[in-house]
Amino acid sequence: MESISLNIDKTFSVITKTQVDAFEAKVNKGMEMLHEGTGKGSDFLGWLHLPSSINETELRDIEAAAAKLRECKVVVVIGIGGSYLGTKAVVEAINNSFDWLQAKRENPVIVYAGHNIGEDYLSELSALLDDAVFGIINISKSGTTTEPAIAFRVLKKLLEKNAGKEKAKDYIVAVTDKARGALRTLADKEGYKTFVIPDDVGGRFSVFTPVGLLPVAVAGISIRELVKGAVDMEEVTDKNVPFVDNIASIYAATRNALYENGKKIEILANFHPKMHYIGEWWKQLYGESEGKDGKGIFPASVDFTTDLHSMGQWIQEGERIIFETVISVENPDAKLTVPVDETDLDGLNYLAGKRVDEVNKMAELGTQLAHVDGGVPNIKITLPALNAYYIGQLFYFFEKACGLSGYILGVNPFNQPGVEAYKKNMFALLNKPGYEKESEAIKAKL
Hey, how many other C-beta atoms are within 10 angstroms of the C-beta on 363? Predict the structure, then answer.
């Protein structure tokens, strides 16, 4: 099997190879801290060897639970942040874009809840599922995170109304803490099938746990191929792989060299519309890991060529504080050519007979050249194909590089203290018990 590849040549308009190589010692130190568990956040390194630690029994248990949920036409994945973004990224990238419209479906429709507090969204979802027997995968370590807890309370009651309380239990799976928390307590009481979120794996690194693997399996995607890709990438980015040959090390070094040269924003760009949510997952991974202590590259994402007609102007000629990382798919599965038109009123007959992907690839190359000429350095990541194996490689590659990059930056890549700030204010404003002092303080500000 081939591997994803990394090319940093088009960053050398702004930085030099010498500047990238100068980070070797810092990267190697970061690698040592990861593998020896001596860095900040070392109690959250369970993801590091997670792919290679997954055994056959675990895979079969996940696949069996997925088979039961696949009896439903619709399965709701309840979670927020890392509890749903990895799943959505994999499902959207691999499954047919219009599968949900097919009259004869092989796979359940996967929908998402608990990732917002939108009353309209939850009301419309409830109306859609009224009278239906649907599946629920409720993902929450504590069971008390506001967004998913509200969604689960609403949808649990709806499923019990539709199917009856006893039958509903067969179609609810809880992915939660192994021993404590509100969801664990409820699952044990009601007898729900459960899977464990490991204590040492943070949400944004959890796609290779049941958090991601169960719903991905329900969607009909091979979790074995996804895990195999991650296992192979775990091997080629291991601590024993020299800096010059280690693509995670090179990526971490390059982005930090660019950051030191004033490039404060990294834009993840793709030319494949099915990869939109890979960008969303990546934004959380890097934003939550690096954005702290007044430091960090700001992660943004765009879908080209679509966003070339909106963000393209700013990227081409705006403030030169950005760099791009482009994800390219070498061989798409589909094969569609541009047809001949006798009148040629649109002037496109010069493209007749060419694959649509060839046109897209030239747009990709033309964009890269234009942006580099405009002062935007480019990193390129190439996937041989868009499938579970290479997505597994890509996700682990980004995770490993993120840990290295955070340690180069000097932050704890595995905590997220800033996420709690809005929650304290929200709880105080809603008069949650225990937040009386905060409530008084907020009233004084208002």
Answer: 14
CB 141 within 8 A of CB 177: yes
What are the percentages of helix, strand and coil residues in the chain, rounded to 5?
55, 10, 35
Active site residue 189: no
423 is catalytic: yes
Catalytic position from the list 266, 280, 288, 364:
288
Long-range contacts of 416-425 (CB under 8 A, 24+ apart): 416/202, 416/288, 417/292, 418/291, 418/292, 419/288, 423/146
276 is catalytic: no
Q: Which of 49, 295, 423, 443 is catalytic?
A: 423
Burial 47-66 (b: 16+ CB within 10 A, else e): bbebbeebeeebeeebbebb
DSSP 8-state symbol, 306: G
Range 250-278 burial, b when 16+ CB lie within 10 A, else e:
bbbbbbbbbbeeebeebbbbbbbebbbbb
Candidates 104, 119, 189, 309; catalytic one: 309
Report the share of the chain in percent with pLDDT over 70.
96
pLDDT one-digit tens code per residue, 228-251? 999 999 999 999 999 999 999 999
